[in-house]
Please model this.
Amino acid sequence: MELRKDPITRSWVITGDDSGLQPEELESCPYCPDAPHPPQVISSMPSVDGGPWSARAVVHPDALYHIEGDPLRQGNGLYDNMRPVGAHEVLVENPRHDRHLWVANDAEVTQFLILTGQRIQDLKKDRRFKYVTVFKNHGDVAGQEAVHPTSQITATTFVPRRVLYELRSGKDYFIQQERCVFCDILAQEEQQRVRVVEGSGDYIAVCPYAPRVPYETWILPRNHEASFERSVLRGSSARELAALLRRTLQRIRTITENFHMVLHSSPNTLHRSEVLDYWKTIDDDYHWHIEILPILEKKAKSYTFKEVYYTPVTSESAAARLKEVNLP
Ligand SMILES: [Zn+2]
Ligand SMILES: [Zn+2]
Ligand SMILES: [Zn+2]
Model:
């Protein structure tokens, strides 16, 4: 596996030749508390109902990014590449195999959110990492990997493209207006009330004005905050978010089983990059949010959302294969 930079959009992709091996058919769920061969545990949250734990982070069994070493970024003419140095963990949302975020209670979802905040905070201590992404793919069409309720977290040496666009736009808007674009959007949405799904305490769920997919929904803190982990690790706020997240997912599930969910939060400001070094307003110009992108089966083909494009065949192998095709 290696990371390659697209010289036009300046976004990174991860690519490498698939081994072609089919994933092993597992006899038992590796994420259940009684799993015979459980993955290595990184962090565990205490139980809320007398169970073994409430949520925990484990090493991803088939990690795209690996923690050891240096990215060894190198240029080759126009092209830049580097090793996929980073972290890739599974966030087990609940010890119970069928207790998804939309059926769990608020205390359980809160534990999952706090675990997520703690993992982000911990991964951001590593100065090599520029960005930490949390995402969930649910449903076959969405690329769900495990049956057990899980999300994933990655720490990367680059900022994923969609977030990069948002960060750049947020900064540009702030330079012009001296205000956060997300706060301005929220103010207008709260005034117009036509795209607000639900407001609950410090949080609000809205359908964005220019959605990429039908029923796209965002959850944002009402008051300005750039960092998700600061919000959820501070006082009572996580429980309100838990309730709104659970309810919003319940709504989405009346539309479709399949969805992507991704957290967009501020990048790692400890990272010594020139871009971030000059970026003194990041706490003012960015506003964290959760994006839920449902997949409607009939429309799945028109749908191209990806945080980081991942192609399991390199372009060299693809070209070689295509060249071999016998054309009439
Ligand atoms: Zn399980
Ligand atoms: Zn804001
Ligand atoms: Zn976003």
Remarks:
- The pocket of zinc ion (ligand 2) is lined by residues 180, 182-183, 224, 287 (CB under 6 Å).
- The CA atoms of residues 105 and 310 lie 34 Å apart.
- The longest helix spans residues 106-123.
